[in-house]
Specification:
The complex is a heterodimer of chains A (116) and B (113).
Chain A (H helix, E strand, L loop, with lengths): L3 E4 L2 E4 L5 E7 L5 E7 L6 E6 L6 E2 L7 E2 L9 E3 L8 E8 L11 E2 L3 E5 L1
Parallel strand pairs in A: 2-11
Antiparallel strand pairs in A: 1-3, 3-8, 4-5, 4-9, 5-6, 7-8, 9-10, 9-11
Chain B lengths: L2 E4 L4 E4 L4 E3 L1 E4 L5 E7 L5 E7 L5 E4 L2 E4 L9 E3 L8 E8 L7 E3 L3 E6 L1
Parallel strand pairs in B: 2-12
Antiparallel strand pairs in B: 1-4, 3-9, 5-6, 5-10, 7-8, 8-9, 10-11, 10-12
The chains are: A mainly beta (116), B mainly beta (113).
Chain lengths: 116, 113
């Protein structure tokens, strides 16, 4: 069982509101990720982190921002939500990648965001 | 660069049918290969993985063999159940992508009773 938690699971907010999606993991993993996914569709990496005070942008441009002040916590913030941000956001974590380690990524259950 | 190609879905089968979902990859060296599954309304879970050529990953009746010669990692199950209905993602991780996971587009599997 993966110990990675996301809140809220479901959220409906109005356009222009600020929203923070929380993600916490208790596995002590250094690497954490945020993916954006429309239902049943491809995963798009939007942010990742190698460890505390490290944040990198992923393959898909996103208006969101992230922070990594503590190993276990990797929140994602949208300063001004728009309907185009409506999607599922998946947080994930893994151990630091080593050759042959397999690099298994553990996912949270996802946060479904609807912006109206 | 690295890439993963999966067969397009949806794949629709009857219960107890044999399942194959094709996955081929492009990468240099010896990447690790994965299958993840996403049940409706949930996040992704690791289904199985293989870290070197000719390894076979297996879990919950699913199997996939790492074939270096054909750069493939096809997912198979001998007898599917309705509860196997989900989206299946093939992925790889290798040194030349800095061990970031490279994902396939996903294949939706629908099993009818």
């Amino acid at each position: 069982e993966a110990d990675i938690y996301q809140t809220p699971r479901y959220l409906v907010i109005g356009t222009g509101k600020k929203i923070t999606l929380e993600c916490s993991q208790t596995m002590g993993h250094d690497k954490m990720y945020w993916y954006q996914q429309d239902p049943g569709m491809e995963l798009h990496l939007i942010h990742y982190s190698y460890g505390v005070n490290s944040t990198e942008k992923g393959d898909l441009s996103s208006e969101s921002t992230v922070s990594r002040i503590r190993t276990e916590h990797f929140p994602l913030t949208l300063e001004s939500a728009r309907p185009s941000h409506t999607s599922q956001y998946l947080c994930a974590s893994s151990e630091w990648g080593l050759s042959g380690s397999g690099n298994t990524i553990y996912f949270g259950e996802g946060s479904w965001l609807t912006v109206v | 660069g690295n890439s993963v190609t999966q067969m397009e879905g949806p794949v629709t089968l009857s219960e107890e049918a044999f399942l194959t979902i094709n996955c081929t990859y492009t990468a240099t060296g010896y990447p690790s290969l994965f299958w993840y599954v996403q049940y409706p309304g949930e996040g992704l879970q690791l289904l199985l993985k293989a870290t070197k050529a000719d390894d076979k990953g297996s879990n919950k009746g699913f199997e996939a063999t790492y074939r270096k010669e054909t750069t493939s990692f096809h997912l198979e199950k001998g007898s599917v159940q309705v509860s196997d209905s989900a989206v299946y993602f093939c992925a790889l991780s290798g040194a030349d992508s800095n061990y970031q996971l490279i994902w396939g587009a996903g294949t939706k599997l629908i099993i009818k009773p």
